[in-house]
Amino acid sequence: MTAMDEHQDRRPFGTAAIYQWVTRLYSALPYHYFKNGYAFPAWHYYFEVTRRCNLRCRMCQYIEWLESASPQEQKEGELTTEEWRQTIEQVRRFSLITFTGGEPWVRPDFLELLELASRRARTHFISNATLLNDERAEACVRLAPRRVGGMGLNFVGTSIEGPAETHDQIRRMEGAFDRSMAGVRRLRALREQKAKACPLIHATTVLQADSVEELANMPRLLKDAGVDTWNLVTETRMFELPDLGERDPKEYKSSDVARPRIERRRLAEGLDGALAAAKEAGLEIRMPRMPRERLLDYYDSGLDLRQFECRNAWNTVFVGRTGDVYPCWIMRVGNVRAQSLKTIWNGEKMRHFRQDCQRRLFAMCPGCCFIEHKKTGGKVNG
Predict the structure, then answer these.
(1) Which of 20, 101, 143, 313 is least enclosed, having the fewest CB within 10 Å?
(2) DSSP label of 245
């Protein structure tokens, strides 16, 4: 039995497992029985407040745009503070709001938006943590509930791609690793000072060829910095597709999507090293929602999509920086400048998209962190 097999046999019933169990339970009835595409009200909202960023990561889905567009072009069309306020006020109370980017902290009003949302819902933001200074870290802890699940800032996520040299090369900024880890340490110290369980801190690492041999070196670094959970996620190239979000996703073929590659033996050894090191460090680890062999297949021969499903469109809604609304990034279904979230959620385009998802997944779905293996989808592999 490999380290990964052993780890999958003893999955902890932690925060990640609870989240996945709730989402599957919430979506089960409409996914299986509502053939008209209707869903219960959304309860997880992703708000992409900007695509601007102070880093230029190699694998970023927006890297070409970030390198070619001027600062003014990157900012053009973003929802204003007031428009984001109006959008936040449409969120059902006690839901979960995830703020993402780009880098959310490049917006001067981000803290204002986070405070507003934290009074209404459970909140979470994803940041590279390089801009998480003392003042912002103190505000994060102030907005956090004492226990997980309370109203306010429950989670903060960042991305760490390897030890310092590897991370900085992938991020393409010297000192990025030290700045991000300093932000994590600052947040953890303030959380402990205030005797709060929140915000829980998770670090995400993309499984990629440039860093697979470094995976075993990560858990101790993350644990020592104060990270609570380490997420390993698949690399996706779907954002390279032309007209993604505007074209019918059924029009794309598997051959249209460039799939990332890692030699099977290298990836297997990297995963086993990561799991063994996480166990030794006492760090919770979360894996993609599929068995080990299917994860190896993804980077080798590819996935058989008939073995997978996605219920995300029954739980989650995405709002992009200019107000466009998506069940996921592959299909735009409206805009908050023209319609309410409630109207869009069970509108004609959204219902048709769900009906398509009930029949099949799409060529660009492999690599997405929301798809799950049908036989093991209800369990978190880590």
Answers:
(1) 20
(2) B
